[in-house]
Design goal:
By secondary structure, the protein is an alpha/beta fold. It is built from seven helices and seven strands; from the N terminus they run ααααββαβαββαββ. It is globular, with a radius of gyration of 17 Å.
């Protein structure tokens, strides 16, 4: 990667981290967790295959969707909804009370600028407990650690998200890397299911 391009990515990353940090503070999140997330984001963005503008677009899509969800009491209360943006696609995970709510949220996200497709994985059920969400975080950490240690796997290019024991893998990878990543995730203790949402490349 050329020096100027790397510098631009680092600069954009710093901006995105600051945005995420401020958003986290407004929502009452722990500062230490935000700082940790920022450090992890830096490593991913520097090696990201997405164009710089797309990285910014994905961040803005997530922030806008989360804001619209939070300001609608029918969506924000007694529900658990997570939006994950990657290359203009959006993964929706969590729990909602009925199919109508599930469809409404999908339509809202689909209407946002630059969103090209939706992976709607929202479950119709009661929200998961705090303990379950903590366990999901731990599973994500274990999956990332195992991927980092796996031979020939370029784990830095893969985004890992866990919801209710299901691991979702996103990224722009070739078929060999995708299979390696899926195999590693399936072997991690506590993983109930692995869903791959990769965009495949030739290299």
């Amino acid at each position: 990667m050329k020096k100027n391009q790397l510098s631009r990515k680092i600069l954009l990353t710093s901006s995105l981290i600051l945005t995420a940090f401020l958003s986290a503070n407004l929502q009452g999140c722990v500062i230490l967790a935000a700082a940790g997330a920022g450090a992890a984001t830096t490593a991913v963005v520097v090696h990201d295959k997405r164009p710089l503008q797309t990285i910014a677009d994905d961040q803005n899509i997530e922030l806008t969707a989360n804001h619209k969800i939070s300001e609608n009491p029918n969506w924000s209360q007694n529900n658990h909804i997570v939006t994950v943006g990657f290359n203009h696609a959006v993964l929706l995970i969590g729990q909602v009370p009925d199919q109508n709510t599930r469809s409404q949220i999908e339509s809202m996200v689909q209407s946002l600028p630059k969103v090209t497709r939706i992976y709607n994985q929202l479950e119709i059920s009661s929200p998961t407990t705090t303990e379950a969400r903590a366990n999901d975080t731990w599973i994500t950490t274990k999956v990332k650690s195992e991927m980092l240690a796996a031979k020939d796997l370029h784990s830095i290019e893969i985004k890992v998200v866990t919801e209710n024991g299901t691991v979702y893998l996103l990224g722009m990878v070739n078929h060999h890397q995708a299979q390696l990543a899926e195999d590693v995730a399936r072997r991690v203790s506590g993983v109930n299911r692995v869903v791959t949402l990769f965009e495949y490349t030739m290299v």
